[in-house]
Design goal:
With about 150 residues, chain A is of the alpha+beta class. Chain A is built from 4 helices and 3 strands. Classes of the chains: A alpha+beta (about 150), B alpha/beta (about 190). Chains A and B meet through strand 1 of A and loops of B.
Chain lengths: ~150, ~190
């Protein structure tokens, strides 16, 4: 996979997992917000999430998750997409606009530091807090090794 | 890239209603109610019918005139349909330049057991003129309907007669021009 795809995948993930309020707050600080038109208005549907037992077993359907997607085009012709969990059309729209903006190398750096990195930091902090909250209840299972082997 | 239907749900329902009206009344010219900016060379009517009928389950064959990168990108984005390399392998075909279209026998006509496995063609012409031209009779037509189409290749109406002759096999056609469509299903007899 190319580097460009990898970094786009990363910021799309951060934008999709941001809380709508945080995203809205960051968006208000974006300089010269561009005008955009909808290629695909926010629409909500279901996506089947699949898993593998143990990460390597047979694939199975875990359950359906509500997803809202959106695609926009900025005035310069850049196209941005977003797929977010849940049914918040504004979240999908903002994530799509930011995805389009981030593809512009001239704006990427300032947006990365003003929008993506703070959101990623907030998400990491939430994840850490959740991990710390549940860590004390973690149970370690041991398999006893039989002496005759 | 251009947007698709302004209201994907309601607009495609309206367009579907017009498609249903057209195929129920072969030869009648029906307005396609969609305010749509379609990528050249597609007309609004043929583009709206594509957006309404196509999805990931319906491979589409494009003629040379419509197989342009921006058209393919637009259709693929809004319909997610796969592309078919050969006309014989496609349940839907879009012909933007009717004058150079292949004969109707090039498309899948279904089998005697499964006539529904046949192709539906969206053929873009220059103009549809009602009340004059070929005499159409058959199911859905009270008495007769008359239809003239500008921009079709010379042997087209002979193809249409042959298409009717192999009923229940055969292809169904939507003729489009600008913002209107008319249907020519295999059940319609063409004379004159």
């Amino acid at each position: 996979m190319t580097n460009a795809t990898e970094s786009r995948r990363r910021w799309m993930s951060v934008l999709a997992q941001a809380s709508p309020d945080e995203l809205e707050a960051r968006w208000r600080e974006v300089e010269a917000p561009p005008r955009h038109r909808m290629l695909r208005r926010p629409e909500t549907g279901l996506v089947m999430v699949r898993g593998r037992a143990g990460g390597s077993g047979v694939r199975f359907n875990m359950g359906e998750v509500t997803v809202t997607r959106c695609a926009v085009e900025l005035e310069g012709g850049a196209i941005g997409c977003a797929y977010i969990r849940g049914r918040d059309p504004r979240h999908a729209e903002l994530a799509a606009v930011l995805d389009a903006l981030l593809q512009n190398p001239a704006r990427r750096e300032s947006l990365e530091s003003a929008v993506v990195q703070p959101l990623a930091a907030a998400q990491a902090a939430r994840r850490r807090a959740a991990a710390e909250r549940v860590a004390p209840s973690k149970v370690e299972f041991f398999t006893m090794v039989r002496g005759d082997e | 890239m251009l947007p698709g239907l302004a209201d994907p749900t309601l607009d495609s329902q309206r367009v579907f209603r017009s498609v249903l009206e057209a195929i129920s009344r072969p030869g009648r010219i029906v307005d396609v109610p969609a305010a749509l900016q379609a990528p050249a060379p597609l007309h609004p009517a043929s583009a709206a019918v594509c957006l309404t009928l196509l999805d990931y389950d319906t491979p589409l064959w494009l003629d040379d005139a419509s197989a342009r990168p921006d058209v393919v990108e637009w259709l693929t984005f809004h319909c997610s349909m796969p592309l078919a390399a050969e006309p014989a392998a496609a349940p839907f075909a879009l012909v933007a330049d009717a004058a150079r279209m292949p004969g109707l026998e090039a498309f899948e006509a279904g089998t005697a057991d499964h006539p529904e496995r046949s192709a539906t063609l969206i053929v873009q012409a220059q103009a549809l003129i009602g009340g004059t031209g070929r005499r159409l009779t058959g199911p859905g037509i009270a008495g007769e309907e008359r239809l003239d189409v500008a921009g079709l290749p010379a042997p087209f109406w002979a193809w249409a007669s042959e298409n009717h002759a192999r009923f229940p096999r055969g292809v169904d056609l939507f003729l489009t021009a600008g913002r209107v469509i008319a249907a020519l299903p295999r059940s319609t007899r063409v004379e004159g």
